[in-house]
Amino acid sequence: MIVFEYLAFQIIALLLVPLFDSIIKNTKAFFNGRKWPSLFQTYYDFCKLFTKKWQYISKFTSFISILSVFVIFSVSLVLFMLIPVGWNTAILNLSFFIFFYLWALATFFMILYAMDNATYFGWLWAEREFFVMAIVEPILVLLIATLAFVFKTTDISNIHTYILSGNLNFMIWFILIILGIIFFYIILAENKRFPFDNPATHLELTMIHEAMLLETNSKHLAIMELASKIKLVTFLTLFIYIFFPFTFWITSTLWLFALWFFKILVMSCIIWAWEIFIVKIRIFKYQNIFIFLFLLNIFLVIFYILK
User: Fold this and answer.
1) Which of 87, 162, 170, 203 has CA atoms 20 to 30 A from the CA of 9?
2) Could you say which DSSP state residue 54 is in?
3) How many C-beta atoms lie closer than 10 Å to residue 78's C-beta?
C-alpha cells in the first residue's frame, strides 16, 4: 500500500513538471515587459507534438537515433521516480554516484544522437556538450566525495536523514551552504541554463542543448523535451532533498507533497530571477567558473580536516 501511495505522488509530480517550465517562462516574460502565454502552454505544445506522426528517420542514420531517445527518457523517468517528493525517505537506497552516472549515460546517448544525425551543428555542439560534461564531472565527483567524507556515506536517503535530524555543528552547516552553491552551478550547467546556455535561443551559434535537437521533430522532439524538463525538476528536487530538507514538523504525506511543490516553486523563481540578471558567457570562459568552484571545494575539505 505504501509503494502505491508513493508512486501515486510521484506520478502527480510528474504531471506537474511542464507547469514549472511555464512558470519560469511566464515570469521571465512578465519582468521583461512581454506578453506571457497561458500557464498551460507547455501542455498544449506537448499535446500538439504527441499527436503528430513518428519522426521520419533518414537512411543515413542508424538505430542509435531511435535508441537514444528512449534511453534518455527512461533514465530521466527512473531517476525522477527514485527521488521522493512527498516522503522523508525513498523506497530504494540510491547512491549519489549511481544517480549522476546514470545521468552521464543519458548525456552520452544525447551526444551519440546528435552525432548520428551527421549534421554540422549536431557534431559541433555534441563536442561542446562533451566539453561541459568533462569540466563539470571533476567538481561533481569532488562534491560527492566531500559529502561522503562528512557524512560517511554516499546514500542520498541517509544523508537526508542525517541532515534532517539537526545534529550538525556550525562547521557542517557552513560546508553544506558552500556545497549547495556549488551544486546550484552544477544544476545550471547540467540543465543548460544561464550563464552556460540559453534554453530559449534559436541561434545555432549560441546554444548547446537545442542545437543537438535541430533534426528532431514530432513525437521524438516531445519525448526529448519532456526528458529535459524532468531532468531539471529532478535536480531541483535533489537539491532541496539534500540542502533544504526541512519539513517544519509536517508528518502528513499530502502536506509534505504540498511543501515539495512550494519549494520547487521557490527554486523556479530563483532560476528566473537568476536568468533575468545574468547573461550568457562565452564557452571558453566556462572553465574559469568551474576551476574556481573546484578550488573552493578543495579548500573546504582542507578546512574541515584542519578544523
Assistant:
1) 162
2) P
3) 11
User: What whole-number distance in Å separates Cα of residue 148 and Cα of residue 126?
Assistant: 32
Residue 161 in grid coordinates: 536523514
User: Residues 203, 50: contact at Cβ < 8 Å?
Assistant: no
User: Whole-angstrom distance between the N-terminal and C-terminal Cα of the chain?
Assistant: 47
Distance CA 153, CA 95 (A): 9
Q: What is the pTM of this model?
A: 0.92
Residue type, 173: W
Domain carrying residue 95:
2-305
Provide the 10 A C-beta neighbour count for residue 98.
15
Average pLDDT of the segment spanning 136-160: 90
Residues 6+ apart with CB under 8 A from 143: 179, 182, 183, 186, 297
Residue 96 cell numbers, joined: 549519489
Cα distances from 48 to residues 68, 74, 226, 282, in angstroms, run 22, 22, 13, 34
List phi, psi (to 5°) of 280.
-70, 135
3-state SS class at 3: helix
Residue closest to 183 by CA, chosen among 293, 300, 287: 293
State how far the alpha carbon of 204 is from the alpha carbons of 55, 179, 194, 198, 207, in Å.
21, 33, 16, 11, 6
* Residue 53 to residue 72: CA distance in whole angstroms: 20
User: How many domains are there within the chain?
Assistant: 1
- Amino acid identity of residue 65, one-letter, is S
Percent of the chain topping pLDDT 90: 29
Pick from 239, 242, 229, 259: which is nearest to 9 by CA? 259
Task: Using alpha carbons, select from 197, 201, 202 the residue that is nearest to residue 279.
Answer: 197
Mean local confidence (pLDDT), 281-289: 82
